[in-house]
Amino acid sequence: MQFFDTQLIKLGRSIAVLVLTIVLGAVYVSYYRRSLSPNSREERGQKILPENISAVTEGFSFLQSDQGQAKLEINAKINLGFKDNKNLLESVTVKVFGKDGVHHDTITSQHCEYDQQKEEIVFSGDVVITLSQINNKTSNHKVEPIPNDKITTIHVERIRYLKSGGTAESDGQVIFDRGNIHGKGRGLVYDSNRGSLLLNSDVEIFVEPANSQMSQIQIRCGSLDYNKSSNQMEMRSKVTLTEGDTFMEADEVKALLREEDSSIRRIDAEGKVRSISRDPQVLLQVDAAHVSYFFDSTGRWLNKVIARQDVIARSLDPQIKRDLLANEMEILFRPQSNVIRTLHATGNTVLVFADKKAVAQTVNPNTTPPTAYDCRFGGDCEPGARRLKSPELNAFFRKDGKKLSHVTTKGKSLLEEFPLQSKDDKKLLSALSFVLTYGKDSDQLEKFNAEQQVKVDIFPPSGPVRTSTSDHLEAFFDPKTRQISQLHQFGHFNYKEGAQQAMADDARYSLEDRRLLLEGLPQIRDAASKTSADVIEFHQLQNLLTARGHVRSLFVNQEKKEQTGFFEPGAPVYASAESLEVQTQTGIARYDQKAKLWQDDQVLRATTIYLYRQEKRLVAEKNVSTLLYLESEKSQAGKKDRKLTTVQADRMQYDDLDQKIHYEKSVRMNGSMGTVQSDQLEVFLTSDGNQKSMERMAANGKVKILQPGKTSISDSAEFFQKEKKVILAGGPPRIVDSERGSTSGARLTLFFDDGSIAVEGGPETRSITTQRVSK
Predict the structure, then answer these.
(1) Strand residue runs (E) in 708-752
(2) Residue 11 in this model has a pLDDT that exceeds 60
(3) How is residue 300 annotated by DSSP?
């Protein structure tokens, strides 16, 4: 982003020496006009060759003075006398003295004609005007030698002065030089009334380099006009400047000069202004409709440059893309250095930048790059490029004026980062202000900050757009790929991906492994659930969500219809644990460490609880404990009283499709029928109105039923809620009553209402005995 750097400095320097040459030329013509006009009231009306001096064939001299101070001195080797009412001189030398009467400019020519009637003087034949440089160190009217590089000479073949119009004109070629500056043009007009000097056409100016390592400066234009009264010089008709690898062109260039010393105050380039530098250190092209250059009091150093209307600054480096577009651009320079300090761009500012070399080194040639048809692209951007849009942009440079320190924006700003490869995401960052920070020892972007109304949109190759908002944003860049590697958003962070939403005080996103870390009261939600924790992470590559510390979840069943389930329909269900893992594609959630699932007063506790949301299945492992209301009885008032059932086991599984709860390993259930111990227990559910209840229950493996004064033992037991009975089988089954003894058989049926037992014997048993057992 070395905008306008070297080429502007060279242009300012070149125009400075050009103006000096032209201004001195104007001084000459001013002296020349004065030499052809009366210089005092006493001499008014006096002719340049007084009538009382006779023509001679050899030698002629004339000295005009005022109060003893020389004003004009004319010398000629030959005086040809009068011809056609003209005084003719040859081998003429004219000295025009300044106010001090010491310094003078010199005019030499082969011929001189003075027409007194027409008041016209014509110099012809190798006319040479030599302009001296005033030496302020002189004293006592002693003239010191003038260095050659301070002397300006102008060569014309013929020049005519018309006193009536106050103009001096030459139709032929004009050649001028001053030290290492020389040039030419065609046609010279000096208007004494306007104080203007005009080179009519084909103007060319050359500035020879001070050493072999520098290039010649060439300035060309159709015409050049200098106006002394307004201290303004204009170059028109396709003005061009060339210095080595640097080129500038414009339809018109104006230079405004200071009245006190004719130094450059300002230069305006108008109409299709283009600056090009092919210097390997710059490689830049700048286009605009208007460009103004402002100089300091010395006229040597640039203070600032302003470009207006359709401004485009474009890098010509094939390895680096740097395009800046704006309605107006202002560049400020460090004092007396021509080194850029800041750049200010306003009005529809667009900056497109990319490191093509880094892209080539990063992208795997075997992978498919994004194409122009990719919906994530727009405009003239290419893979790996970034596009910044803002109403106002400020660029701050380091002391060398080449490397950037940081860039800021104001107003609604957008930063787009386009994917390097087809598998990569596109990023779109927006806010009311940006700060882009560059490395101290490089021109690479290191950090990006955004403030106020921050929004980040991440567009994957497929799937929903991931959108987040916050008060603040920090982005960090990978030094190899030059792409955004990390995003840090804080202050009212909100995130949305499809139906999933998240919020937190602080969020960090790593683009390499696509991991989003939420801290500061983080919370995630979708249409059916909401979860909070101390820390929440999205691992997008693994399609995994994790939460740690005080995990809390809320599940809302949107279905109001009557149904059977582990919990009542239509009421929220809560979950808690110390950690949570959710497989986002499958919907499997794992609550770990002190896991708890509850609805009102129905509770499931375990070390780990798995929720399979798609399959509508639930699994609990280790230290499983459930508090369920699966039984009910009608009270005297006709209402149903819910009965609490507690179950403990090492593992539990619930399947909504089968409407079955399965417990295994060290199962212990406490309910209205007593305490049931077994290796496995299955509870089959049914619905009664809008409430679920237990239809039947089956226990297997070392079944033991403990009731007051009674113990039942079998290999299996099947409980029937509606009939209030349990069937014992295997072992063989046996019921031990502390008062009545024990009963056994191939199969025993125990009725809970009256405590009766039905016995079914084996092959050797021929009858069924019924025994009354007291309660």
Answers:
(1) 710-720, 725-729, 734-737, 741-744, 747-751
(2) no
(3) S
